Amino acid sequence: MKSAFWQLADLLFPSRCALCGMADHAVSDGGNAYCPDCIEKLTPVPRNRCQRCAAEIGPYASSKEGCVQCRKRTLRFNSVVCLGMYDGALQKALLAAKWSFSAVPMRSLGALLATMRAAELHDKAFDRIVPIPQHWRQRLVRNFNPAAIVAAELATRLNINCDVHLLKRISRTRPQKRVSVKQRFENQAGSLAATYPHTIRGERILIVDDVLTTGATCSEAAKVLKAAGAKSCSVAVLARVLDHSA
Q1: Of 42, 147, 158, 172, which alpha carbon lies 20 to 30 A from 193's?
Q2: What is the pLDDT, as a whole number, of residue 11?
Q3: CA–CA dist 80, 51 (Å, integer)
Q4: What DSSP letter does each residue of 122-141 carry, written as one string?
Q5: Is the same domain home to 85 and 145?
Q6: How does DSSP assign 34-92, residue by residue?
Q7: What is the pLDDT of residue 6?
Q8: Residue 9, pLDDT score
C-alpha cells in the first residue's frame, strides 16, 4: 500500500509509457510499463500461424508439416507460442526493453505474452519453464537476461516452476545476425548443456527466449533437454522474426 505522499506523487507526476513516452496513470514503475493505447498496438488480433514455428501463414494454408519458413529445417522443439511478429510497435518495444536500465518493460511484455496466449500455454500443461541462458560475457554488457525476465513472469502467472539454472551455455557463439541459416545451426551446436539432467525425465518443458528467427538456439536447447529425458519441449517467445532467406 503506497503512502499518501506517493499516491499524490503518482497523481501529479504519472509515469511515462516505455513505448510512446506519454504520461499515463495506468503506467506504474513497479508494474505495467505501457499505456492502454500502446498495449493495444502490442497485442494485435492473432493471425493464422504455422503450428510448428509460429510464422504467419495464409488463412487456408496447412502447417502440420511446417511452413515455408521452417519446413526444410530440423527443429527439435514441438511448437512455438509468440506474442506477435517482430515488426511495428512490438519490434520498437522489444529493442527498447532489451537495452533499458530497468527490467520493467521486459517484464510487462512477458505479462502480455502470458495474458494474450494463456489458452495456448495452459493447454500444454508444462512442468517446467526454462529460459535460454546468456554467456557470462553477455551479462557484462546487459543488466539482465531478457529471456530470464520473460520466463519468470510466465512462471508467476502460469504457476509453473521457472528453472534458470537447468540450461547453461558452455561456449560463446558468434553473432547470429550476419551468417546463413546453416551456419546459425552449426554455430549453436554443442553450445548448451543441462546442469542436472536427471531431474527432468518425462517432463514437458517450455523453453523461453525473447525472439525466434531461424529457431537454431531454441532447437539446440530442445535437443539437449530431450536427450536428458524431457518428454516434450515447446517454445514461447515475445516475437517471431521472419527469415527472408527462407
Answers
A1: 158
A2: 47
A3: 7
A4: HHTT-SEEEEPPPPHHHHHH
A5: yes
A6: S-HHHHHHHSPPP--B-TTT--B--TT---TT--TTTTTS---SS-EEEEEESSHHHHH
A7: 38
A8: 42
Domain region containing 181: 47-240
Instruction: Give the residue among 37, 60, 62 at the shortest CA–CA distance from 52.
Output: 62
According to the model, what pLDDT value does residue 126 have?
98
Amino acid occupying residue 3: S
CA distance 100 to 146: 10
Please list the ranges in the chain whose pLDDT falls under 70.
Answer: 1-14, 25, 28-31, 62, 136-141, 174-179, 244-246
Q: What is the pTM of this model?
A: 0.89
| CB contact at 8 A, 85 and 238 | no
Residue 79 is assigned to a structural domain of this protein: yes
Q: How many domains does the chain have?
A: 2
Query: d(Cα 130, Cα 221) in Å, to the nearest integer?
Result: 9
36 shares a domain with 63: no
Distance between CA atoms of 73 and 51, rounded to whole angstroms? 14
